[in-house]
Specification:
The protein is an alpha+beta fold. It is 22% helix and 29% strand.
Length: 594
């Protein structure tokens, strides 16, 4: 090869290399985000948790007096991260390329094939499943700080704690000096029980606490936590209340602090109300309400065990969502403090809809006996809930269900029945009827998936009933909506048939997060499912809510039918788009499923 030609090639290689470097620099953040989201979920965001341990620590920036850590997102971002952890790396890459970079699916399939992915279509199918679950918010969530691996957050260390540590070191040094100077005195020092760390002065004093009168609930139009009187044997224990307020203001070292989703832990204000103070089990418990939150302070009777603080949202609570609070948890059991307007307390098993509720023993203060708690880890062979009845001074014959999802306030369960022929749209009602209990029995085991999400209420809406082809019985379509205290909700679209047992879990045919669907702001829905008849024939089924007048499907199957129901033969794993036309001309679209 001639020298000029070799020089031209080297020059072109250099230009290509410079171009590649420029592209990397220009797109560095997006490339790092793609790499971070595609990496195995077992790797942590924190470098000191990678194999080998501490290998990267010398390279990290270390600044005295500052804390450096990755930024964190909210509950929606964490939920998306959990979903991504459940699928393969190619599926994660496909999801990011489709939703973040906006590439068409054929181009994503080509990129995956070029990266030696054995089955690009399988990866795209898994990515589509994530898109269905997350909904339109997927792109915004991927751009959030939770998934930005190129930035860190800086924060000064706790200056007050540093000062305390310095004072503590001087105290320890002085004590050691005294002990070393008088060694003979060591033999006379007796052992004493450890003392609980003391909190600083509270933001408000005990005398500033608000207390409702015992009969306020019966003479007010606002039936919520503000109508709870102060109850319990230690509501006048100033020392306990001062410790509780002090711990809330500035939690001492070792205090366990827990907050429900979207709940602040800011100090008490002048609107703080005392709800309860007493010894329950092996700890003293104090409950407060400040108009927006419910706060629980737990002080174990053993001084060697640290205290605890729990915060939960309570704004806009009502006769059902302010009906009870979880006071203590131990050995898989919960004890509740019921509202003063609760006249009857029972427990019932959602998985046994035909069995009546069992009466619970309740103290004069409103404290229940121990009740089984819903566990995310245990097998779903029983699902205890509370069945409460309001006093006739509040509402005549008003009974309702609440379920424990791990928070301070149990979650209100409601039910919307199937639409009647020619009737107006039905509204949610209490889940105590036979139809409600039978419907809830098919979806109850999925309540545990909602733990820790700050859920306020869950409604089970049976929006359509359909006769199955070839005499296969009947099917019911449901939308289960979990509404949170902060506003957004998540939905599950479910499908169950008459051939299933009374408590068999319904089939999930759709999910969405941070959506208004199946609420009063999203009253229209369409869903589809795959079903196989007794003869082995495969069908695509679709159903819409009350205002749907026509359903059509396109893709691997093309069909249309007037009305709210459709059933058509379809091959296995057929890709289809389902469209539903409403009475006012609007259209609902279900993206392709495979």
């Amino acid at each position: 090869m001639s020298t000029p030609r070799r020089r031209r090639m080297r020059g072109s290689e250099r230009v290509a290399l410079d171009h590649a470097e420029a592209v990397i620099v220009d797109q560095y953040t997006r490339l790092v985000r793609l790499a971070y989201l595609t990496l195995p979920s077992t790797l942590s965001r924190w470098p000191d948790r990678l194999p080998p341990p501490r290998a990267l620590r010398p390279a990290l920036p270390v600044v005295w007096g500052l804390r450096l850590f990755p930024r964190a997102g909210g509950t929606e971002e964490i939920a998306l991260a959990q979903l991504l952890a459940e699928v393969s790396a190619p599926a994660r890459a496909a999801f990011v390329l489709c939703r973040l970079d906006g590439l068409p699916r054929p181009e994503v399939a080509q990129l995956l094939a070029a990266a030696d992915v054995s089955d690009p279509r399988e990866a795209l199918d898994a990515a589509r499943g994530i898109e269905e679950t997350v909904g339109e918010a997927a792109g915004a969530l991927l751009r959030s700080q939770e998934f930005d691996a190129c930035s860190v957050q800086t924060r000064p260390t706790d200056l007050l704690r540093r000062r305390r540590r310095v004072r503590l070191l001087w105290c320890v040094a002085g004590t050691l000096a005294v002990l070393c100077a008088t060694p003979a005195s060591l033999g006379s020092v007796s052992r004493s029980e450890p003392h609980r760390p003391t909190a600083g002065p509270p933001a408000i004093g005990v005398d500033a606490l608000l207390r409702a009168s015992p009969d306020a609930w019966a003479d007010t139009s606002r039936v919520d936590f503000t109508a709870w009187p102060a109850r319990g044997s230690r509501v006048d224990d100033r020392a306990l209340l001062t410790r509780a307020l002090g711990a809330w203001t500035d939690p001492p070292r070792g205090t366990r602090v827990g907050a429900a989703a979207a709940t602040t832990t800011e100090p008490p204000t002048k609107t703080t109300q005392l709800l309860y103070a007493a010894v329950v089990g092996r700890e003293a418990v104090v409950l407060f309400h400040d108009g927006r939150r419910v706060i629980r302070y737990g002080e174990p009777l053993s001084a060697s065990t640290p205290a605890s603080l729990d915060f939960s949202r309570a704004d806009d609570s009502d006769v059902t969502t302010a009906a009870a609070l979880a006071v203590s948890r131990a050995d898989g059991k919960v004890r509740y403090l019921t509202a003063p307007w609760i006249a009857e307390t029972r427990t019932r098993d959602l998985l046994r809809p035909n069995s009546p509720g069992r009466p619970l023993d309740v103290s004069g203060e409103g404290l229940t006996e121990r009740v089984g708690a819903l566990s995310a880890a245990a097998a779903c062979d029983a699902l205890p809930v509370l069945q409460l009845r309001s006093s006739s001074r509040i509402a005549e014959k008003h009974a309702f269900l609440v379920a424990d999802l791990g928070g301070l306030s149990p979650v209100h369960l409601s039910y919307t029945p199937l639409p009647g022929s020619g009737a107006r749209a039905r509204q949610p009602r209490e889940a105590t009827s036979r139809a409600a209990l039978l419907s809830w029995a098919h979806g109850a085991c999925r309540l545990s998936e909602l733990r820790g999400n700050g859920v306020r209420a869950v409604n089970q809406w049976d929006f359509a009933e359909q006769g199955l082809p070839e005499g296969g019985g009947r099917a019911v379509w449901s939308c289960t909506r979990a509404s949170t205290w902060r506003g957004p909700g998540s939905v599950l679209l479910q499908f169950r048939t008459s051939a299933q047992s009374a408590t068999a879990p319904a089939q999930i045919v759709g999910r969405a997060r941070a959506t208004a669907a199946c609420s009063r702001f999203g009253q229209h829905v369409v869903a589809d499912a795959r079903w196989t008849s007794g003869s082995g024939h495969r069908f695509l089924l679709a159903a819409g809510s009350r205002e749907v007048t026509r359903i059509s499907v396109t893709g691997d199957v093309d069909a249309a039918k007037r009305g709210r129901l459709l059933a058509v033969r379809a091959p296995k794993d057929a890709w289809v788009t389902v469209r539903a036309r409403l009475a006012d001309g609007q259209e609902l679209v279900r993206e392709p499923l495979g």
